[in-house]
Amino acid sequence: MWNGINRRRFPRANYKCLISIKKRLTSKTISTHTENIGAGGICVLLKEDLGLFQGVDIELFLDESKPPIKCGGTIVWVVKKSDPKQKGIYTYDTGVEFIDIRPEDREKISEVVDDILKARRSAGKTNA
Q: Which distant-in-sequence residues (6+ apart) come within 8 Å of 101 by Cβ?
């Protein structure tokens, strides 16, 4: 099991929201959903490997009724996964660290993560 979560500066929560990622070198844009999110970055599952340490531009739609959070990012890890149902088909679990993010946008993300984690703890207490 991966122990990286123990070294994170910001907690993460499983949260699916729309995200647009544009690779700076090619200007190719990919729309997908986050797997998890924290104030320091996100994890997304992609159909292609964008490359380690590549710069990307991000539009993150935390709340579809509000304007997206726009910032830069750096791909900090990629894990290639095979699809057991389709031989030769791969996906790429991709970690993106936020850079050039406004403090108020980082705070919005922190609030969402805190709310999710509090709800999870409360649900765990009622099920005990």
A: 69, 71, 72
